[in-house]
């Protein structure tokens, strides 16, 4: 039986022809997938992307955020350095805060190109900055930095009156005495805010370079709530001397009590909330040591205290160790106080003191029925005593808490 032979050798010529064709097809497929042309335009023009490639929406923002001081800066001044700007766009978000999350208030310029803090920064504090700007296309650019303010070698604080939480009379100003003389009063005053409920205009006035008082134009209304915020930390009060104090103080105005002393008539009329409480016989300053005229505010109260004439320029004329029911009216030594050493007939008829206002009393301050004891118990620190018809000048506004003797127009200069 015959056999048919089959040629099993590979057809090498055809294999060499098909392999390049397969590679070419794959290359065409790859090119089509990456072109982004879509295949909808057989002309090969590339549609809207012709000549420029496809727009992907990932172009960088033209806005650039700049922050001063530089990231990581140390010993940065607390004022005059921090500034955030944008070129090629406008700032849309600016956040500056310390590590406790306390934000720094700031102001954005009208054109949105810059931001600066509204107040000084605290000393020895690390701050974090986050700023975002947008270009005309709405694309954002952001910057985050950190810096630390200086640690001052020399510092100051302000000793304030009245005390936090106290209830005081209608004449009580806010008085702050600084431990160092201030040569940059604008910066220090800007760091202190005094507000009230109900609200009234409240203005500050400097007495010298170490005392700043605040008051309204007229006495406070009874029941007013007053808040004092001291943000002195970081304020450069004088070259190289920085504030080191952040404190909020609140106090309340009690009932209204204003007493008027008529030195010529030897009487004091006590008026509370518009009603006369009592007319009290008094003795004022003798002809050679008269009592100041003017509005005086009670700044201290002592049930018993020592009064030595040598401390106020009267040499050894008197030294009384147990003056009862004494209330200070001036820094120079004017008091309203009890008097147990003068005859009872003196009160209401003669002026015999060294400038103080005396009311009948007993030694030891133990008799609550005495006029001095009654007035002491009915008075608050901050109550007003007005002296008239004395043959003396008006008391100086800075002699005690007595700024009411300065006209409002002069006070606000």
TrEMBL record:
Domain L,D-TPase catalytic span(s) in chain numbering: 257-388
Q: Which PROSITE patterns match?
A: LD_TPASE, PROKAR_LIPOPROTEIN
Q: Fetch the Gene3D superfamilies from UniProt.
A: 2.60.40.3710, 2.60.40.3780, L,D-transpeptidase catalytic domain-like
Q: Where is this region: Disordered?
A: 38-57
Q: Which residues form a coiled coil?
A: none
Please list the residues that make up the active site. Answer: 337 (proton donor/acceptor), 356 (nucleophile)
Q: Does Transcription regulation appear among the keywords?
A: no
Per UniProt, which keywords does this protein have?
Acyltransferase, Cell shape, Cell wall biogenesis/degradation, Peptidoglycan synthesis, Signal, Transferase
- The annotated regions of Gly residues compositional bias extend over 38-55
Q: Its annotated pathway?
A: Cell wall biogenesis; peptidoglycan biosynthesis
Give the signal peptide range.
1-35
Alphabetized PANTHER family for the sequence = L,D-TRANSPEPTIDASE, L,D-TRANSPEPTIDASE YCIB-RELATED
Q: What is this protein called?
A: L,D-TPase catalytic domain-containing protein
Record the organism.
Answer: Streptomyces amritsarensis
């Amino acid at each position: 039986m015959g056999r048919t032979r089959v040629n099993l050798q590979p057809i090498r010529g055809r294999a060499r022809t098909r392999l390049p064709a397969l590679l070419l097809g794959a290359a065409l497929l790859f090119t089509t997938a990456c072109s982004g042309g879509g295949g909808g335009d057989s002309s090969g023009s590339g549609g809207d992307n012709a000549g420029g490639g496809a727009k992907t929406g990932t172009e960088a923002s033209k806005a650039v955020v700049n922050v001063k001081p530089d990231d990581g800066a140390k010993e940065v001044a607390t004022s005059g350095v921090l500034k955030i700007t944008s070129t090629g766009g406008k700032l849309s978000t600016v956040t500056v805060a310390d590590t406790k999350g306390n934000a720094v208030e700031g102001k954005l310029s009208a054109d949105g190109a810059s931001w600066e803090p509204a107040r000084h920064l605290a000393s020895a504090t690390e701050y974090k900055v986050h700023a975002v700007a947008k270009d005309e296309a709405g694309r954002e650019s952001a910057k985050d930095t950190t810096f630390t303010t200086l640690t001052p070698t020399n510092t100051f604080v302000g000793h304030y009156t009245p005390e936090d939480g106290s209830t005081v009379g209608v004449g009580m100003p806010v008085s702050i005495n600084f431990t160092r003389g201030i040569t940059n009063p604008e910066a220090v005053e800007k760091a202190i805010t005094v507000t009230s409920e109900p609200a009234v205009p409240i203005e500050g006035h400097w007495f010298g370079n170490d005392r700043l008082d605040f008051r309204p134009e007229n006495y406070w209304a009874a029941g007013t709530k007053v808040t004092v915020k001291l943000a002195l930390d970081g304020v450069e009060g004088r070259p190289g001397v920085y504030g080191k104090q952040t404190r909020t103080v609140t106090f309340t105005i009690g009932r209204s009590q204003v007493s008027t002393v008529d030195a010529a008539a030897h009487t004091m009329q006590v008026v509370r909330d518009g009603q006369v409480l009592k007319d009290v016989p008094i003795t004022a300053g003798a002809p050679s040591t008269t009592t100041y005229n003017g509005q005086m505010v009670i700044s201290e109260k002592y049930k018993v205290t020592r009064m030595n004439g040598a401390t106020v320029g009267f040499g050894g004329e008197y030294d009384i160790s147990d003056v009862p029911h004494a209330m200070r009216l001036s820094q120079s030594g004017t008091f309203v106080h009890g008097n147990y050493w003068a005859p009872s007939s003196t009160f209401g008829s003669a002026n015999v003191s060294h400038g103080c206002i005396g009311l009948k009393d007993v030694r030891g301050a133990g008799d609550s029925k005495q006029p001095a004891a009654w007035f002491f118990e009915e008075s608050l620190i901050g109550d007003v005593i007005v002296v008239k018809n004395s043959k003396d000048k008006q008391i100086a506004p800075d002699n005690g808490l007595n700024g009411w003797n300065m006209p409002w127009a002069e006070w606000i200069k």
